[in-house]
Specification:
This is Lon N-terminal domain-containing protein. Pfam families: LON_substr_bdg (PF02190). The structure is a single chain. The protein is built from 6 helices and 6 strands. It is of the alpha+beta class. It has 2 domains: about 110 residues, Archaeosine Trna-guanine Transglycosylase, Chain: A, domain 4 (Roll); about 70 residues. A hairpin with a 5-residue loop joins strand 4 and strand 5. Helix 2 runs parallel beside helix 6. It is globular.
Amino acid sequence: MTKNLDLPEIIPVFPLPGALLLPRSRLPLHLFEPRYLAMLEDALKTPSRLIGMVQPNRIPGRDAGPGLHTIGCVGRVTQFSETEDGRYMITLTGKSRFRLLEEVEGFTPYRRAKVSWAGFERDMGPEDADPHFDRTAFMNLLSRYFSARELETDWQSLKEAEDELLINSLSMLLGFEPEDKQALLEAPSLSTRRETLVTLIEYALRGGDSEDIMQ
């Protein structure tokens, strides 16, 4: 478990539409823009190696700063490798969600924000549980969805995955709209996230607007 001192008041933030990071989950990223290479370099110099993922916000009245949602999730850089042409492949492991209070002006080419960790204490604890999860019904729905989209997956791994890993991985990987991803992020519990995910899948099966699917 990450100690409180690893959760600073000011963090770098990476606005990326549709890229969802959840606590205790892993998000691979490909960095190539100079400002984000600088962000990674600065993050690696700190003991916590934290980068905050946040969705850009196009809905008037919901910004905490210029064009950012108020809720994001911070991740620790747990893997990184450099390509021959100077790009980086990194993995962020989700630690905790945060509430964005205000953007911080400074001399960095990337954005930084003052954040609050209050209200997300459960993110730092053990895996969340979903006591009312009907896995059989959920897997049947997922099978219909993958079949309708002509997608393939490792069904054995999905069947063997723990509830939180299954729900969070699908929330991150399925290619829903950014606002749908934000709803999945803001879900207060694993049960609520699973219910939201089921609603989005059912909507897509009815011919909704969610686009084809694996990012």
